[in-house]
Amino acid sequence: MSMEPTARKTGACLCGAVRYEIVGPLRRVVYCHCEQCRKTSGHFVAATACAKEHLQITDAAGLRWYRSSEMAQRGFCSTCGSSLFWQPEQGDYVAIMAGAIDAPTGLTSREHIYVDDASDYYTLTDALPQFAGDHAELWGEGDV
Ligand SMILES: [Zn+2]
Ligand SMILES: [Zn+2]
Prior knowledge:
Layout: E1 9-12, E2 19-22, E3 29-32, H1 35-41, E4 45-51, E5 55-59, E6 63-69, E7 72-77, E8 83-88, E9 93-97, E10 109-113
The chain binds zinc ion (2 copies).
């Protein structure tokens, strides 16, 4: 699997009531155009991911979880509303909204998923691979 170089990263919500550190390798950024991601972000989600044990919440004062589907819950700041995490029930990883990680992140982007659910007001013009639905290898072996 193609992973970004291991380095300590920090991130936070808009108001600072949620802060975290990532102490392991990160997945390249995946753009998700599904309806849930559109609703929660206001556009589409751009998320990296790391192993659960590599995400350390250093300030959880504002952190709340919303069960957005049978398969996952979403972490957000209850004070400022920042969308921060997507945590699947199955699997040992957590997706992290890339925009909340302090720049420079050193990340690059990998692909678009759920492009069939994208809204009609934008067009994808980059050269990244596009998948109609979920991508089987969101985490684990066989990164594209
Ligand atoms: Zn906040
Ligand atoms: Zn999505």
